[in-house]
Specification:
Length: 170
Amino acid sequence: MKKLLPILLLSLFLASCGSSKRTTDSRIKKSRTSVSNSEKTANAQADRIVEHAKKFQGTKYKFGGTTKKGMDCSGLIYTAFLTEDIALPRISRDMAKQGKRISLLKAQAGDLVFFQTNKSRKVINHVGLVVENVRGELKFIHSTTSRGVIISSIQENYWNLAFVEARRII
């Protein structure tokens, strides 16, 4: 009887470890699948937003503009997101209060990048939409006063120095 009790306890212990392991594995698989599906949806939505913004490349700058006749930086972002029924504030510094702040290294297509281009006023006054982030070279589309709607690299000295933060809306 003395030898039987330890054997019973050991078999009970081993049986309980085995059953809890299977439960944990199935939960992990389910959560990975659902995250993967929502990521696919968000990526597709972000791609459509980026493609819509790219249609405005070459459009001249116009303060307050939101059309092919002229567009400012926040107008470009506002218009692009509206195609996916996502209403953002119309001003870049207000857009910077939306979504979730993320690391620039984690920024991907559809994320927003914010800048302070006026050094005398310490406020966000410019926004761009990430087009791609390949091996750390982040490219974004935005509207500049001098060249209109263009794609730039965050590695350009001017934009690198003016960068403030990146945010994920979707």
